[in-house]
Amino acid sequence: MTDKTTGSNPQINKLFRMNHSIILPLLPFFFLLHELEEILMVCPWIKKNSTAMHRRFPKFKPVIRKMEQMTTLKFAAIATEEFLIVSACTIVSIQTGNPAAWYCCLTAFGIHLIAHVAQFIVWRGYIPAITSTALCLPYCIWAIHETAPILSLNEQLFYTVLGTLLGGLNLIAMHMIMHRKPQS
Q1: Structure confidence by residue, pLDDT tens digits, 70-81
Q2: C-alpha 85: how far from its chain's center?
Q3: DSSP per residue over 79-139, as a string?
């Protein structure tokens, strides 16, 4: 027999209710921790390393130029908007007992962290957010593992793709807004 809130059987849903009071609220905490490191470190790091980035990655010159235009205030605005989305999705999932919205954010965040690991490997040195990535990635792995019995493999894949696409589109939109020239 399935439960209407999660579509899983009642025993798994009981497990979700017991663990969700711990697992779900941790996502905004870890997300905020990661974003704070980025807010504090990205702009000074870009200023210090932009010449080396242009030299090492000439094909990415347009992206690097956009990064050079980013201010800490603009970066903080983007991070705040993303944090509000992650928090809202977490609250919705806690209130409804349906982990879908939270899982979309969790997996998108996990993929974002894996991208930072790849950047760290390519750069071969410190990049902003690698310290918090080392703290946040274990949480993401644990949370995905703990929620695996609640969602089918198809649901896990669907919510991962959906969360990553929506998160990516939101990030692009926010960067476009932040880089928009003021109208005179």
Answers
A1: 899 999 999 999
A2: 10
A3: HHHHHHHHHHHHHHHHHHS--HHHHHHHHHHHHHHHHHHHHHHHHTS--TTHHHHHHHHHH
Q: How confident is the model at residue 18 (pLDDT cuts 50, 70, 90)?
A: low
Q: What's the domain count of the chain?
A: 1
CB–CB of 133/164 below 8 Å?
A: no
Query: For residue 157, is it within any domain?
Result: yes
Helix crossing, 153-179 with 72-96: angle to 10°?
150
Alpha carbon of 60 to those of 1, 3, 53, 67: distances in Å? 53, 49, 9, 11
Q: Are 32 and 83 in contact (CB under 8 A)?
A: yes
Q: How far apart are CA 73 and CA 127, in angstroms?
A: 19
Residue 1 has pLDDT above 60, yes or no: no
In a domain, 3, yes or no: no
